[in-house]
Design a protein that fits this description.
It contains two helices and ten strands. With 158 residues, the protein is mainly beta. The protein has one domain: Hypothetical Protein Pfu-838710-001 (Beta Barrel), CATH 2.40.320.
């Protein structure tokens, strides 16, 4: 299960806080009301992902993901419907840890900040993945309005 909250980003100060960044291209082989099938290429890795739809008013939804060969992903991209999304993902710690070098491996909570390119140039959205729907977390200064349930900000609809 995946439990995500999604927000608009109001400034680019997240770039100074980031511990990593990736280039991502992703497209959707299937976009149905019940879920999606996505192919994603992240730098030198690729994934096939199936996601279900969350229940009304909830954040949790089914997610299955498998790493696949990059060449297979390139072939699957040819089957994608609509626009292939091009974005830079910035990984920003969602926690403060004193006297510890923050890396992706020792973070429990992270903000994934997606800076869109191409057709969606200028759009910046941040997501945080949680362990449960009631989990609390700090909202950093660069976070704006929540858009978790706004279909305009679903990657599958872009």
């Amino acid at each position: 299960m995946e439990i995500e909250r999604k927000y608009l980003v109001t400034s680019d100060c997240y770039k100074e806080l980031a511990v990593a960044r990736y280039h991502i291209r992703q497209g959707y082989i299937s976009r149905e009301k019940t879920g999606t099938v996505r192919v994603r290429i992240t730098d030198d890795k690729a994934y096939l992902t199936i996601k279900g739809k969350p229940a009304a008013g909830h954040f949790a939804r089914y997610e299955w993901e498998k790493e696949i060969d990059v060449q297979e992903a390139e072939e699957l991209m040819k089957l994608c419907q609509g626009t292939v999304i091009d974005k830079t993902r910035w990984i920003v710690p969602a926690e403060t840890v004193d006297n510890l070098q923050l890396t992706i491996d020792n973070l429990q909570l992270i903000w994934e900040v997606d800076e869109f390119h191409g057709k969606h140039e200028g759009l910046v959205v941040a997501e945080i993945e949680l362990d449960n729907e009631e989990q609390s977390f700090e909202i950093p200064d660069f976070i704006g309005d929540e858009v978790t349930h706004d279909p305009r900000y679903y990657n599958a609809n872009m």
